[in-house]
Design a protein that fits this description.
416 residues; 10 strands; Cytochrome p450; alpha+beta; binds protoporphyrin IX containing FE; five-stranded mixed beta sheet; three-stranded antiparallel beta sheet
């Protein structure tokens, strides 16, 4: 194994063009030993990186790959317990409780309950409403104008949809936008202290706001997700507690906003760069859902996820230790030539298209049907409303994130 290959997912080179770096690693070193990390408790462990489709799918389905370190190591092995500073307590507690970061059986119980409320049927019924919201957002920007598509469209559309889905009144949308922006930054791999402090403050504000909304819906249930989440019961008659509802509300907001924003912005960016493809899709709109799948595959809004090893094990003959962390590069799996013919080609009629952008296994994205629907509506409207989409002459900047594939802004010209 060539130990000399270095990989720095926090580097600007990586943010500019992750696919070329990931492509090289996938070919030369599909299992890479990353840096040695030290937890707050003083425990040291290795971070591994997986790049091949087969290894990543196997990992996502493997019950030995866990989310909660306390299920992997004993208290003694975890080292001295570090008290969580009060300034971060709300944030840490809330993240720990989210089902995305939980293992069975807690994850199973939460997921079963929320599955009953967040149904594909509910998502289908939203279609015309999503279209109305999207049209309203584009109304101030007739063809011929130049505007920042991230700021005016890709950012607000999903946050309005989630806020409405949850049952947040229109007048409070801006509050939700502010929280969501900070929460997304907190989820990133590299987070500043200032962001963590802000995140903690936002959790308090969100919880105060949502507690009132939950009280209100307990008294007067409506046709919204909060009311359904309050009602659902599992086979044993169990229900979500108020605290679980609050954590679920934050998770839905965080998991559904930044991600869908990236999907819409990345789709628009790709259309600007492929005018022939944009024309082909205008002529054959039935290919738009397939085009959304290709955007998801080639520019996945979430580039990686991670797990802790619950046992010593080998991947491709390489020994890893219990307690090590494994980064699963979804963005790399999606361009693995062992699974996708001509992986760097955008093919809206690619079938099957088993990209991993929504994950796989027990944590498979709850909001995938909603994201696909929002993505398809947004792309169709952009293509029909604007006969020509081009990038304005401003430098393109990707967010300094190794987790999200996210444009900071996208200035586009929409000439007639
Ligand atoms: C293009 C948009 C989206 C992408 C790319 C995306 C991606 C993902 C991925 C990769 C995971 C699995 C992470 C893992 O296994 O570690 C996930 C889980 C999740 N997503 Fe999404 N997501 C999107 C939109 C949404 C939306 C709109 C919602 C809800 C409103 C949502 C809610 C969730 C939830 C609740 C989970 C956790 C599921 C669990 O732990 O069982 N996502 N998403």
């Amino acid at each position: 194994m060539d130990e000399s290959l270095s990989f720095d997912p926090a580097s600007p080179v990586f943010h500019e063009n992750p696919h070329s770096v990931l492509g090289t690693l996938r070919k030369l070193q599909p299992v890479l030993r990353g840096r040695q990390a030290t937890a707050l408790s003083g425990r040291t462990f290795t971070i591994w990186h997986l790049f091949s489709y087969a290894d990543i799918v196997a990992a996502l389905k493997d019950p030995r790959m866990m989310r909660e370190i306390r299920h992997v190591l004993t208290e003694e092995e975890l080292g001295r317990a570090v008290p969580i500073p009060e300034e971060f307590r709300a944030l840490v507690d809330s993240q720990r409780n989210m089902m995305l970061f939980r293992d069975p059986p807690d994850h199973t119980r939460l997921r079963n309950l929320v599955n009953k409320a967040f149904t594909p049927r509910m998502v289908q019924q939203l279609a015309s409403h999503i279209e109305d919201i999207a049209r309203d957002l584009l109304a101030p920007w007739p063809a011929g104008e130049q505007f920042d598509l991230v700021h005016e469209f890709a950012f607000p559309l999903p946050v309005i949809v989630i806020a409405e889905l949850l049952g947040v009144p229109k007048a409070d949308r801006d509050l939700v936008k502010g929280w969501s922006r900070i929460f997304a930054q907190v989820l990133d791999v590299e987070v500043s202290l200032e962001t963590l402090l802000q995140g903690n403050q936002m959790i308090h504000e969100f919880q105060d706001y949502f507690r009132d909304l939950i009280d209100e819906r307990t008294r007067n249930p409506r046709q919204d997700l909060i009311s359904s989440l309050l009602e659902v019961t599992d086979d044993e008659g169990g229900q979500l507690t108020v605290q679980e509802l609050l954590d679920m509300g934050i998770l839905l907001l965080v998991a559904g906003h930044e991600t869908t924003r990236n999907l819409i912005a990345n789709a628009a960016w790709m259309m600007c760069r492929m005018p022939d493809m944009a024309h082909a899709l205008r002529r054959a709109p039935h290919l738009i859902p397939g085009a959304v799948e290709e955007v998801l595959r080639m520019e996945p809004p979430v580039m990686l996820t991670s797990r802790f090893l619950a046992e010593d094990l080998h991947i491709q003959g390489i020994a890893m230790k219990r307690g090590d962390e494994v980064n699963l590069w979804l963005a790399s799996a999606n361009r693995d030539a062992a699974v996708f013919g001509e992986p760097d080609q955008f093919q809206p009629n690619r079938s099957p298209n088993r990209h991993l952008s929504f994950g796989q296994g027990i944590h498979y994205c709850l909001g995938a049907p909603l994201a696909r629907q929002e993505g398809a509506i947004a792309l169709r409207l952009l293509l029909t409303q604007y006969p020509r989409l081009t990038l304005a002459e401003t430098p393109l900047r990707w967010t300094a994130s190794s987790t999200f594939r996210s444009l900071t802004a996208l200035e586009i010209e929409t000439s007639l």
